[in-house]
Amino acid sequence: MIEIGMIGEMQARSGGWRRLGKRIGFVPTMGCLHAGHMSLVAEAKRRCDVVVVSIFVNPTQFGLGEDLDKYPRPIEEDRRLCREAGVDAIFYPTAAEMYPADASTWVVEESLSRPLCGASRPTHFRGVTTVVAKLFLATLPDVAVFGRKDAQQALVIQRMVRDLNFPIEIIVAPIIREADGLAMSSRNRYLSADDRQRALAIHRGLKAAESAFATGERSAETLVGIVVAEIEATGGKIDYVECRRADTLELAGGRLDGQALIAVAARYGDTRLIDNLFLGG
Ligand code: AMP
């Protein structure tokens, strides 16, 4: 496994692989890797000859007062997991390498990035689209794999790729959960034992909504209410629980038809967790 810190060197490597006819798979991450990330790596390996994982805690997607400084960076452990998974290259640039001090260009998606996390974190998706575009241009992949855990992010990236003609196939892989249902996240390690136990209400609420949907419940308000009730019963602070059309992210009111997404962001202690559920379609 090679490790590359410079954009020019990454482009040269990927250019070499492409000239040899190798198919390049790419998994962008902020490190602190867990089984969720590694499922994306496995998916990339199934589809490609060469797999590149980027590890970059992207400052531009954090708002003021968010957890940029305390975001966990266990790079040795990340290297080990990548090596064991058969990753070919880690792209591990510094912030100075990624962002010249006078950088003044942004990639902005203006529709799908507005609601949900875009409403509570107004500069977040601008940071995500900009860094992902830059990472694509550094790693030059054929395929890039994202997790459905960040369902809105995946939609925003798919839209960016379509709108800007990136010649990259985007794969969205399922959410990987802990045995008790908590969606895996690098931020789970911030949770106290008590918060972690209470946070299971998010998944419990989504499962309850899924069961209600399976037995015929089609009212968006009722389904949202089921999730809200579970989270509130455990003292979680809800940022949003919303039911939206799975393709456009328009608010789904009244009776659901077509595929819908119930998206959740809630805080336990100081830790903001997200999760979601796709229904129907
Ligand atoms: P992050 O390091 O949190 O920026 O995540 C990097 C990628 O891993 C994103 O595409 C996430 O959606 C994906 N990811 C994070 N957690 C999970 C999970 N529990 N299951 C599947 N994918 C995940």
| Tally of helical segments | 9
Strand order across the biggest sheet?
1-4-3-2-5-6
Q: Find the count of extended strands (DSSP E, 2+ residues).
A: 9
Helix content: 25-40%
What Rg is obtained from the alpha carbons, in whole angstroms? Answer: 19 Å
* Beta-strand share of residues: 15-25%
Overall structural class, as computed from helix and strand content, comes to alpha/beta
Unreliable stretches: none
Q: Secondary-structure element sequence?
A: EHEHEHEHHHEHEHHEEE
Cα separation of the termini: 41 Å
Q: What is the molecular shape? A: globular
Average pLDDT number: 98
Hetero groups = adenosine monophosphate
The profile of the biggest β sheet is:
6 strands, parallel
